[in-house]
Give the backbone structure.
Amino acid sequence: MDLKTDYMGLELKNPLVVSSSPLSMNTDNLRAYESHGASAAVLRSLYEEQIVSEMEGKLDQEDMYFWYPEAADHVRNISKGQILRPYLNYIEKAKNEVSIPIIASINCHRTGSWVSFAREIEKAGADAIELNVSTHLPHDSTTEARDFEKAIMDVVSEVKKQVSIPVSVKIGPYFTNIIAMARGLEKAGADSLVVFNRYYRPDIDIEQLEVTSENYLSSPGELSQSLRWVGVLSQQVKCDLAANTGVHDYEGVVKQLLAGATVTQFCSVLYIQGLAYITTMLEDLKWWMKQKRFSSVEDFRGKMVDDRLNTAQFEQVHFVRKNVRMFD
Ligand SMILES: Cc1cc2nc3c(=O)[nH]c(=O)nc-3n(C[C@H](O)[C@H](O)[C@H](O)COP(=O)(O)O)c2cc1C
């Protein structure tokens, strides 16, 4: 059975990629990813602020807004030579210990001197860079949406000028026109879009009267948002798509591939089930393919968006059809 997948020019043995999280910052875990069958790993992200802070020895006022005071102090203190070199060393170590592709990751939202660090990442041996451009939600009322979006596209084109390895862009769902944004990112040079980042979801403990953010793992029910947009975007962009958020089992993998994803990315399920669960997902995927008589992933990738009626179901048209009888 042929599970081989070309992701941004990287030859992956299957479409199961472990997404960015602290789990990837331990080479024992990377070895476990590989032995359990994952085809690539994304490392935890560095923040552009951390890179600037360490390269230039400063954290500017605007950054302070994003980093609440304790976090800003933390970044200042630990960024004195303690982040960038270790991150590069870790990439080198990872490359020595596993043969699956290693994708470095940077959280960023605007260009600056930090983009030159992408070259260091390439030199350290990373196979690709993932730019998570979704974590900074606009927090001032004066920035126009188009300026905010342009800044993100500029980041992508600047990073692309620095490196020859592929660059993927991890986005969130909060754009007025996701298709236009996706096309803009593709034009800026994105080799792949990761759809979507999952935000920490704040909650309020009404007993302690405290804001909490305990809810940091996804559930399988969260698949539908990325499924919809993978289905839509796979018809609208030519770059690869990595489906992310809510992929907890082979069914999630199969659905995203049927919607046109190139690969799936996941990490919550590994926190919940353990790293060996990658093997279960892989074996279950093969079992499903066998049942359906598909001998390769290409046999069914995008199968559910291959005609207009199916595609419409990923859009809102279906909602209209279902509600055609307004009154019974
Ligand atoms: C503990 C934890 C840490 C994470 N850290 C990062 C990170 O550093 N960079 C990033 O791009 N995504 C990060 N993520 C997001 C995941 O890569 C992924 O996009 C998200 O969890 C949705 O996938 P899932 O449904 O499989 O969890 C993190 C997720 C978790 C649970």
About this structure: The two ends are 50 Å apart (CA to CA). DSSP finds 14 helices and twelve strands in the chain. The chain has a mean pLDDT of 91.
